[in-house]
Amino acid sequence: MPNYEYRCTDCKHIFEIFLTYQEYGTQTVNCPKCESSQLKRIIKPVRVARSEQDRLESLADPEQLAGLDDDPQALGKMMRQMSQELGEDMGPEFNEVVDRLEKGQSPENIEKDLPDLGSDGGGLDPSLGL
Ligand SMILES: [Zn+2]
């Protein structure tokens, strides 16, 4: 049986009552303390919308990542899904890495060819000589 939580707007008393679905909406509910009918139904948040951060974390689920080191194609596929999920263009280097992974190249070899990877240069443009 569902229970409903109310707060009395007169005396601020919070209480729960049990009603069947038939009773709910037909039965008048009164505050058990002051018998006021000025009640406000308290609706508990059932599901909070997940933030972008949460989505990223679930995409980068460690269980999902386990074993990907030995499977460049799966890694490439996952990275592609990630960028599609974000709806962002991750840049030509990212796309090249994904392409190479999907062709079965090992991450080590790709890193050798693309030395800027992993340096996390904070968006510095190498052509500026910084
Ligand atoms: Zn009350």
Write the layout of secondary structure elements.
Blueprint: E1 3-8, E2 14-18, E3 39-42, H1 52-59, H2 62-65, H3 72-86, H4 92-102, H5 107-113
Antiparallel strand pairs: 1-2, 1-3
Helix pairs in contact: 3-4
Bound molecules: zinc ion (ZN).
Proportion of beta-strand residues: 5-15%
Return the domain count.
2
Please count the helical segments. 5
As a percent range, the share of helical residues equals 25-40%
Which small molecules are bound?
Answer: zinc ion
Given the C-alpha coordinates, what overall shape results? rod-shaped
Are there runs of 5+ residues with pLDDT below 50, and where?
none
Using only CA atoms, what is the Rg?
Answer: 28 Å
SS content category: alpha+beta
What strand line-up does the widest sheet have?
A: 2-1-3
Total strand count, please?
3
* Mean residue pLDDT: 77
> What is the string of SSEs from the N terminus onward?
EEEHHHHH
- Strand count, sense and closure of the main sheet? 3 strands, antiparallel
